[in-house]
Amino acid sequence: MTLLEELSALAFASAPPSEANQAIARAREASAHHGVPGLSYEVALPALGVDAFLLERALPKLVYFLDCRGVKLPHTPGIFVSLFSGDRLAFIEAGAFVLALAKRRGLDAAEVVRRYGEQGAGDPPLLGG
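The structure assignment produced for this chain is given below.
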């Protein structure tokens, strides 16, 4: 199973990207936590190099984002990834997304936070690119 197939299997919902605004609104409602609408973290996959992009760019950025918000992995209530891939938009609970990517790197939640979180050894990832 490819990494993208593995992530797609974790999706709690999906939609065509052309319906992104409405679908994300529905996913926010479905992911509401304590009456607060869910938060969408959007990831748009490139046409080539999907695995490298997910493992080397998306994973560090998402972990940094979550850690800076005070979210303790792997529990990410109310936060989901909106994963844009070609003609599909998949919604995946953020903690499950991180754990799947971490597993592919041979890491656990604590180690990804140590490496990529706010207090990580390196500089924070560039959030814009």
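Interim note for the steering committee: The helical segments are 3-9, 20-30, 50-68, 94-104, 109-116. The first strand starts at residue 13 and ends at 15.
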